[in-house]
Specification:
single chain, 246 residues, alpha/beta, Rossmann fold, 2 domains, six-stranded mixed sheet, four-stranded antiparallel sheet, 7 helices, 10 strands, globular, binds adenosine-5'-diphosphate, binds magnesium ion
Amino acid sequence: MAIIALRGITRRFASTEALAPVDLTVEDGRFVALVGPSGCGKSTLLRLVAGLDRPTAGTVSVDGRPVDRPGPERGVVFQQPALFPWLDVAANIRFGLDEAGMPRAEADRRVADWIDAVGLQGFERALPAQLSGGMAQRAALARALAPAPGTLLLDEPFGALDRITRNEMQDLLVRVRQATPATVLLVTHDVEEAVYLADRVIVLSPRPGRIVADLTVELPARRIRTDPGFVATRVRVEDALGAAMA
Ligand code: ADP
Ligand code: MG
């Protein structure tokens, strides 16, 4: 597992200041959710940690190493499953393992394990276009996690799914994380999702995004959305988000 550190991060696109200086440390093995109004720079921040973009100022490091490109040690899942459309499910999950030079037999085993872990048995040879949205996200999650990355970066990964499928995917994420511990940074606009999954919820202001609240979620690992403690935490985050937008 990994430690993510952002120091004095800003990002400007021409005249748009997307991120104000942001300082954030995500400790080893933590699950941090990032919430904030649309356009406040959440995806920008996540892309910087993924190494898909560079900050205008400041530094991003993972385990003390500056991030300057994507890498299999940082798995990424976006809202739209970024699967290779010409590769079947098994080949998509395999992709990062081949890149990492994993021996063939071991990669075969790892792919089979992940197909099972995300419930895609029987769809190994299916192409992404033949999958439902939820199945495609299962494959995307398996692809991101198969190389056992220290960091998992999720940008509204379940945002396009219906409520029932989204809840199933949240439980799937909880399960696979027990088997494959990773430090997680999750961008979501769904406060309930943030409180269901995270140990800590960071609230960003409207653009340019800066951290306006940093809330610890003091709930048991297995959460029930209707429990009074859960509801109280959800309201606390909603209040912080409301205050940020006021
Ligand atoms: P969020 O994910 O919180 O909705 P984003 O990080 O996607 O917000 O965007 C933050 C701001 O930066 C928005 O105003 C968006 O239009 C702008 N932005 C993001 N990426 C680019 C880009 N590549 N070029 C120009 N502007 C961008
Ligand atoms: Mg976004």
